[in-house]
Amino acid sequence: MSSKTAILGALLACHAAVTSAHLMISSPAVWGGQSDALENPLQPGNENWFCHGQSRETAKGQVEVKAGGSVNFPVLCGAAATNPGDAANICGSDPNSWHNGGGCALSIAYKKDGVKPNDFVMFSSNHDCPTRNFGSVDFKVPANLPACDDCVCSWTWIPQTAGDEMYMNCFNCKVLSDTNGTVTGGTYLKDHYFSVPGYESKGGARPLYKDVLPNGELKIDVATSPTSANLQSNTTTTVATVATSSTVPVATAEATSTPVPTSEIKSAGLVSFSPVAWGLLPVVAISSLLV
Ligand SMILES: *[C@@H]1O[C@H](CO)[C@@H](O)[C@H](O)[C@H]1NC(C)=O
Ligand SMILES: *[C@@H]1O[C@H](CO)[C@@H](O)[C@H](O)[C@H]1NC(C)=O
Ligand SMILES: [Cu+2]
After folding, report:
1. Which of 24, 152, 205, 217 has the least C-beta neighbours within 10 A?
2. Cα 70 to middle of ligand 3, angstroms
3. Distance between CA atoms of 158 and 65, rounded to whole angstroms?
4. Which atom of ligand 2 is nearest to the CA of 238?
């Protein structure tokens, strides 16, 4: 047996014991579109690591995520990528691709561009995902998930039976919510990558979500934006202390003792007035509300 044959044999034996195909989510809003190329597990170091090596430009539209509601995704084999309605038939010929289920999760990064592995906070987990019939899976959404016009979400799956592998597809998402604010805590995806060098997975040798996360919506901590009424009463007193500053961005904080008009407060996002001494110049710190 040549060494090449030996390697091939080992690969086949390993793979045959597991599956001959894998799974993905199907939606035009997924980075990479409805393409069967998205079914492969993450392979750190390869081009498919992180959001499957895809970019937002390859996606069409957005998935609407309703806070307090739920979002559905067909989780199916690559061969059914463009035909999710027929996934039961198409993927049924390859039942091993299901990997005996496992668990899936959805995460969100509150930014549109330059998203990084550490940006994702998990907001929903489903312990019975994928389903045996390769159908749609329901993900519950926390009621306090902050609104976002243009965010990046991801679906991840750690299979019950497989090699050391996990799956990740990213998609464009929009959150419809009564909550405006910033996520300050929760369950971060960076702690739930599996078999990705540089990321320690918590929860044992195969950290299935059912063993480490509740089923359904996940708790997230949110710093809600101050209402304009609060800002108004605060700015009346604090703006006066920076009245002489010349470094203040004029558009967002006029050096004046009158309250900042509500419209300007909104456009400035979360405005915190801190009379920090920097030399003799007081400065106004402005942190942007939503990215
Ligand atoms: C959230 O922000 C949007 C846009 O700035 C605004 O229209 C809406 O009233 C805000 N909602 C709440 C509950 O503050
Ligand atoms: C702003 O006003 C609110 C409500 O009056 C108050 O709770 C809060 O402490 C104030 N913040 C600052 C920085 O003064
Ligand atoms: Cu697989």
Report:
1. 205
2. 26
3. 22
4. 14
